[in-house]
Design brief:
Blueprint lengths: L13 H5 L3 H16 L17 H5 L7 H14 L10 E2 L14 H11 L11 H12 L16 H14 L10 E5 H13 L8 E7 L4 H8 L3 E6 L10 H11 L4 E8 L11 H14 L2 E5 L16 H7 L2 H4 L4 E6 L12 E7 L3 H12 L6 H11 L9 H27 L4 E2 L8 E2 L2 E2 L3 H9 L4 H13 L1 E2 L1 E2 L12 E4 L4 H21 L2
Parallel strand pairs: 1-12, 3-4, 3-5, 5-6, 6-7
Antiparallel strand pairs: 2-8, 7-8, 9-11, 10-14, 13-14
């Protein structure tokens, strides 16, 4: 052991010997003294307090797991104790957690991960050959053929190759380089890492990060934690939450007065707003980023979740390529995907990837260095990501079951998106834009002035007050729009459309009844 560390080596430490016989004696008498004091609560000032803690961490807010969810947890405990409520269960429609809401896992994905986790199953006749082939390939990429070994910081090579092939297929042949692919711990980790490396400067030259309002609160949280400057641009609710370049320009020009805006974040399909951007809109955004020298972040984790007729997912990477070399060779773009959403809903595996193009070669080394401090993303999550990008293909034995399961999940979500939109739009004092994609409704709600006054008396945002009342009276847990950001004087909430159809219908009925009563009560 290191010298001077008691119990480390066999030789007594010189300083300890010099303390002579007193050493152990002093300690034992101190121990006796503390034994006497054990019942008298003499507590010192804590080192870590709200005043002394990292102020950036204190500033972080994350609404989808915020105060409303803590309250829901308390109510659940009370129900378990048998305390009577006007409902029998809490329905958590606050977070896009598909399996928790009853969605079934995709069989093929679980088979491959099971085979990777317990390779003895490779001899079992109850697993299909195509699943075994993928598991063998993944295991060959693992140190010691085990999912339990660290991988390269950037992720397992063969999986990054599969991601690159997937991107090429998805984008109609646009080339993708495995070397630009980084496997991540869910998309969140990739987004936070890219933001971390981008943020610099002090005072008016501090990095500004442009984010859509409403936004997914990961962005505002990461920006707070990194002490960067949040620059809001507003989506157009009157126009189905469309992104307008004039609004980007307004936002950028105002921000230049107090920071150095150099990052533009796009969420497509939108969270919480569910809009799917058309090609023209994406071209405009790319041109704007090129013109204004902005680093683009494209959060595309809902790329499989597109429901509306006439809507189609276009990746930023593909459109960038089609706009020609002037753009394609210059615009710096990081795109993100995940195992958590889509038809897979595998949130718990924390699998994801990012593709980063046009990075300065020296920055690539810096990015790998930053990632290597965390060693690597969970290898089981990397395996799950592989199945998302390398699913069964026509002619393989698992194909028909895979396609049936995938389409069942997506058709089901499309049905629920329509049901939710229609239902909310029948409620007086509520308006919901079409849910073109993703897995949330973000209806606008009218809150009477009396309720707004009462909310202020409770030091609450009006929509937080509304959501608390909804939770206390119906057991339904949704997230207030104030957690995502919204135009001054408008109120919303975000609700997932993940519960099974029958349960969702009951949930929507309850929300409707609550809303009508709420309007009457505060009229």
């Amino acid at each position: 052991g290191p010298r001077g560390c008691r119990g480390g080596g066999t030789e007594p430490d010189a300083a300890w010997l010099a303390a002579g016989r007193q050493g152990p004696m002093r300690w034992s008498s101190a121990a006796e003294a503390s034994a006497v004091n054990i019942n008298e609560k003499v507590s010192r000032e804590k080192i870590l307090t709200l005043e002394s803690m990292n102020p950036q961490v204190k500033a972080v807010e994350y609404a989808v797991r915020g105060p409303i969810v803590l309250k829901a947890g308390e109510i659940e405990k009370e129900l378990r104790k048998g305390i009577k409520k006007p409902f029998t269960e809490v329905i958590k429609a606050n977070i896009g957690d598909a399996h928790a809401m009853g969605q079934r896992p995709i069989t093929f994905l679980r088979q491959v991960v099971a085979l990777c986790t317990y390779p003895n199953l490779l001899d079992s006749p109850s697993f299909p050959e195509d699943a075994k082939n993928r598991a063998r390939r993944i295991l060959q990429g693992c140190g010691g053929n085990s999912l339990g070994s660290y991988s390269a910081s950037q992720g397992i090579n063969c999986i990054r190759e599969d991601v690159a092939s997937y991107i090429e297929r998805r984008d109609g042949g646009v080339p993708a380089d495995p070397d630009n692919i980084y496997l991540t711990t869910g998309a969140s980790d990739g987004i936070a890492t890219i933001l971390k490396i981008l943020i610099s400067g002090g005072g008016k030259s501090r990095t500004g990060v442009m984010i859509p309002i409403p936004q997914y609160p990961l962005y505002s949280a990461a920006i707070s934690e990194l002490d960067a400057i949040q620059v809001n641009y507003y989506l157009d609710e009157e126009n189905c939450w469309a992104l307008d370049v004039n609004e980007l320009r307004r936002s950028l020009n105002e921000a230049k007065a107090y920071c150095n805006p150099k990052v533009l974040c796009i969420i497509n399909p939108g969270n919480p707003t569910g809009q799917v951007q058309n090609r023209k809109c994406i071209e405009d955004v790319i041109h704007f980023a090129w013109e204004e020298k902005l680093f683009l972040l494209a959060d595309e984790v809902y790329q499989d979740n597109v429901y509306s007729e006439g809507c189609q997912f276009h990746s930023f990477k593909k459109i960038l390529y089609e706009m020609g070399p002037e753009y394609y060779n210059n615009v710096e773009l990081a795109s993100f995907h995940s195992t958590s959403k889509g038809y897979m809903g595998e949130c718990g595996y924390r699998g994801g990837y990012m593709e980063v193009i046009n990075l300065h070669p020296e920055i690539k080394g810096q990015l790998v260095k930053l990632l290597s401090v965390r060693l690597c993303p969970p290898v089981s999550g990397q395996a799950a990501m592989d199945i998302v990008v390398n699913p069964p293909i026509p002619g393989e034995e698992s194909y028909s079951q895979f396609i049936k399961e995938k389409e069942s999940v997506l058709n089901n979500l499309a049905q629920k998106a329509k049901l939710t939109e229609d239902m909310f739009n029948k409620v007086p004092g509520m308006h919901c834009n079409p849910l073109q994609g993703a897995m949330y409704a973000f209806p606008r709600i009218f809150i009477p002035s009396k309720a707004i006054e009462e909310a202020k008396a409770h030091k609450m945002a009006p929509d937080m007050f509304y959501c608390m009342k909804l939770l206390e009276e119906t057991g339904i847990c949704v997230v207030p729009g104030s957690g995502f950001g919204q135009r001054e004087g408008t109120y919303h909430f975000r609700m997932t459309i993940l519960p099974p159809v029958e349960k969702l219908k009951i949930l929507l009925e309850k929300v409707k009844d609550f809303h009508i009563k709420f309007l009457e009560r505060y009229a």
